[in-house]
Amino acid sequence: MIRKRVLGAVAVATLALGLPLPAQAEYPEKEITFIIPFSPGGGMDTTPRAIIGPMSKYLPNNVKVVPKNIPGAGGRRGYAELARAKPDGYTICVINFPGAAIPSLTGQKVTYDINQFVWIARMSNSAYVIASAGKNDAIKSFGDLKKLGRPAKFTHTGYGSTAYAASGIVREAMGIDSVPVSGYKSSSEYIVGMIRGDGDATIAPVESFYKFVKSGDVRALVTFEAESTLPDVPTVRSLGFEELEGLGVDRMVAAPPGTPDHIRKMLSDAIIKAMQDPEAQAWAKRVRRPFDPMNTDEATAYLNKSIAFYTKYKQALAKHD
Amino acid sequence: MLESTLSAIELLFTVRGLLFLGLGTVIGLVFGVIPGLGGTTAIALLIPLTFAMQPYEAITLMGGIMGSVSFGGSVTAVLLNTPGIAPAAATCFDGYPLAQQGKAGLAIGAAGAASSVGGLIGVVILVAVIPLAKQIVLLFGPPEFFMLAILGLSAIALSTGGRFLRGLIAGLLGLLLSFVGYDAVSGGVRFTADSEYLFDGIKLVPALTGLFAISEMINLSVKGGTVVTSGQANVAITRVTDGVRAVFTHFGVTLRGSVIGVFIGAVPGVGGTVAAFLSYASTLHADKDPASFGKGNIKGVIAPEAANNSKDGGSLIPTLAFGIPGSAEMAIFLGVLVQHGIEPGPMLLIEHQGIVFSLILALSASCVLATVIGLAVTRQLALITLVDVHTLVPAVVAASLVGVYALHNDVGDVILAMAFGGLGYFMIRFGYPRITMVIALVLGELAERSFHQSMMMSDSNLSVFATRGISLTLFVLTALILVTPAIRLLFARLRARTAGQAVRPVAATAPAQRSRLAQLVVPALVLAAGVGMLVWAYEYDGRTRMVPALTAWTLIVLGLLDLAAATGTRAGDAIKAFFTGSAGAPDDDDGKPQPTRKVFAACAWATGYLGAVLLIGFHLATPVYVALYVIRHGKLSVRRGVIAAIATEAFVAGTFEWGMKFELFRGVLFGG
């Protein structure tokens, strides 16, 4: 303890003198572990994997960045591992937002505190789209969802998921009453469930819909993007709900609570540059998952705002049968 | 269509194409042979490496693995009574008795040929239904999935032969286990005791590895000796070609198995285990002489093998139509496609026909290639049945636990597998069929989820199951399956009565050597478990509680009956006679006494290894355990112990750390 304090004093002194601190100059000296709290293959896995190669180019000593999949409990296992890790810059983690925030907002017990994470960067954002089945003639526009004479049935994975949370916010803020048909394994499954007629409509990130809109199986009703990437689909702003613009899933990068500022900035710079690297850009183009970078300061401000937004809608996230 | 098929063929028959196909096939065979490892693990571990490959190469490699893994799994099933992968469990029933009779060659030959032919039939059916794939997938919604799950559960429960009552009980226990964890329908978390590990529920790969592989290793460890029990060890390896021929002489069995495989394969989340058992059960019930199964009937090998390999063709149907994976392997494989810029889904067939045909071609080619490679080394592999089991046990235990760890990178899975290993061993010894528990574990979640979904989509109207054609058909089929054996038994009794003699029950239950009191202990424990789960279920409410509570109530009723049956009173015997169904899968237990001291020792060695892995990690624990076990417990030479230890560790380190760049658990003492 005393030793630490002395070191701290020395650090302050050296900083004040504008001299490089030996300990700092050395970071990073060994490989950095990039926790991926999901199984290999999905977007939460492939996005960080696309930047870890170029990332080491932009770090001092060209240290390697090694991905480590820790799947389980909807990401909680990986987030808990991050929360436990030493704040020395050698462990970072990709975070699904709002996926990681929902459990504690709905009163579940989790072993990490999302408010304590140090935000390094945002990699991408997938805005939501509400859609109905292409063959469903009763629901051809967003307005039709209100004219059913009963609550609309929304298919999704289940209570506690990001899509369930979104349907709660849509109910509260846009006045679309809905009941769930839940329990599907993935967004492709619940979209197909909706096409099959298990439910009336569904809500999912825009990327999941491209192929189905193209094949005519799905009709997009409204998009939460700032500018629609789907043909002839109104944005939430154009319908008068500008507060909801950007509602979707963010892929963030975080470091353990207490990570020092200089490490936070160094990692942020490396990730931002890695996303602009031709290698990562080529990947993004190929898989049609564009990066939407934010550096550590922007990401922190953005996350604080977003957490406040979801906290405001806390009641809407609750279970609704 | 023709053009893309031709270009796919051209791409496959390049040096690189054949290289990746061969590599995939060999990896698939090895991962299939070793319990605990499987196609899912192979593909999951190889994913990061495929990102650097050309799409066609990656797909050929994956197709090679998927096509070959099931044959590898059945080789172990035949030789060691331990399925290399869970779907091969049905192959044990008749494959292992054949090996014990010294006919391992016949069984493996049949398994190999049935895999190839089944795989090819699966691909042919797939290609035939591709134009209709979308419509077919849309025909099956939650009510149909629910009815399918019920159909599967009923068919399997009935196939446990003389142990029908305990088969049902094991099934109900399996259902309760399948409800553990997060329930996506209600959003509730059940039976986890606040453990983060159990949030995802009882994971299938570790549970099945424990139930099938670890339990059988404990069993072998107690028994000792060699697999071949007949005196004529010299005939052990012959008749591979006879086995191949049998697949064509019983082509009806092969075809039925393949069709069942495609159908079950197309249902997301069900997979090969259910397909293989349904195929086995239907072949057994359709046969003129059901009593010959379980004693080395070659049809009992062909049926599950054909189904197990044809399911890959089936699982591609929902994948091609909508991008929904039909199996665990396919789910990971979709990730590979996305990474190469190919979006699985309705546009795949239109935009990337070449990719689709490359995969189909690799799948079919590897089915055949795996069989050719496999049969070429069958002679050598079959020699395993002549080796002292004490050399095999530690190697298999170590390799399967390593495999279990590698799949999710979670040491909790290793502990779970060991726990299920102990459970499985006691189920073998006390006559509770493991297979109904396994099927219930696989289908329980699907059954509950699709039931609630059916209710949600129909505003809680039960008629949803009757007003949809396919759902109704499946319901009628289930009813027929449940009623047929009873009717058959009734006719047999009537005929016997007119002939003036009593019908003997097909199989006698519960080994007789245990004391009356000892026979009551296990049924009482099962009953207590039922009551415990019921009390626990009432901590939850509404949808979260409904199905688990219903299952627990049923378990309590059947548990009481089982307890009564074990009392040996007249009422007990009447219950026993009533629940002695038709012929079915054989008893897992050979009924020979196993001294408690030996059982204790076998369990202690396995637990000791687990403890060592947790403390000092796989790389230190594995060679030490293998060597010590072979020398101390197996009483074999030091030289053999050292060789076994080096070989096992070389495989573990070579495959994972070196081949797949995967870091195994280092032990808590070393910061793991």
Your description of this structure?
The complex is a heterodimer of chains A (321) and B (672). In chain A, 39% of the residues lie in helices and 19% in strands. Chain A is α/β, with parallel strands linked by helices. Chain A folds into two domains: 28-125 and 249-317, Bordetella uptake gene, domain 1 (D-Maltodextrin-Binding Protein, domain 2), CATH 3.40.190.150; 127-244, Periplasmic binding protein-like II (D-Maltodextrin-Binding Protein, domain 2), CATH 3.40.190.10. In chain A, strands 1, 2, 3, 4, 5, 6, 7, 8 and 9 form a nine-stranded mixed β-sheet that branches. In chain A, helix 3 links the parallel strand 1 and strand 2 (65-69). The radius of gyration of chain A is 21 Å and the shape is globular. In chain A, 50% of the residues are buried. By secondary structure, chain B is mostly helical. In chain B, strands 1-2 form a two-stranded antiparallel sheet. Chain B has two domains: 2-227 and 236-509, no CATH class; 596-670, no CATH class. In chain B, 72% of the residues lie in helices and 1% in strands. The longest helix of chain B is centred in the C-terminal third of the chain and has 31 residues, at 469-499. In chain B, strand 1 (181-182) and strand 2 form a beta hairpin. The chains are: A alpha/beta (321), B mainly alpha (672). At the A-B interface, helix 3, strand 2, helix 4, strand 6 and helix 7 of A face helix 3, helix 15 and helix 20 of B.
